[in-house]
Design the sequence.
């Protein structure tokens, strides 16, 4: 299929508009973040980097190594085996990391919810538009003297926009879709 420049520019505009809308949603989400939320997001991103595992491993190995070398040389050790201070530090760090990750995830869930709502609204709007197109096609077929006029129950049914409340009720009444 060959596209004219007008068709390509209209298509590009449509895609650009969609991309801009999604980018705007993300930008608004970032702009509405408090300073604390931004810090939490930054720290969660920092902790999720592969090098962070290496850094923690080096710190732990260094802590253990320094304490073992100090004990071997007969010097005072800060944290003798079984390294209770190290265990406590790891536990405390783990607690903070879990809280940071949960807080960051909650914020990302808000963005996902906004995207989900946008997708749902677009799906409902698309369904209504498709129903209208089917109605117009059926009307055109009935009015066209070249085509024989026949009843098409499937097209008639598809030409009616779905009642979203009825669909929602049907979904929630279906055992496979009810939340556990």
Sequence:
């Amino acid at each position: 299929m060959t596209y004219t420049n007008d068709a390509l520019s209209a298509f590009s505009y449509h895609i650009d508009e969609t991309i801009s809308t999604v980018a705007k949603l993300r930008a608004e989400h970032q702009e509405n973040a408090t300073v604390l939320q931004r810090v939490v997001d930054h720290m969660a991103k920092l902790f999720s980097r592969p090098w962070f595992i290496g850094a923690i491993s080096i710190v732990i190995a260094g802590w253990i190594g320094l304490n073992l070398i100090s004990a071997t040389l007969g010097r005072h050790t800060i944290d003798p085996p079984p390294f209770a201070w190290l265990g406590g530090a790891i536990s405390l760090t783990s607690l903070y990391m879990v809280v940071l990750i949960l807080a960051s995830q909650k914020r990302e869930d808000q963005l996902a919810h906004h995207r989900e709502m946008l997708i749902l609204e677009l799906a409902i709007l698309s369904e209504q538009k498709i129903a209208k197109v089917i109605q117009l096609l059926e009307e055109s077929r009935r009015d066209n003297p070249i085509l024989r006029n026949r009843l098409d129950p499937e097209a008639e049914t598809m030409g009616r926009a779905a009642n979203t409340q009825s669909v929602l009720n049907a979904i929630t009444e279906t055992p496979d879709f009810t939340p556990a």
User: Anything to note?
Assistant: The first helix runs from residue 5 to 31.
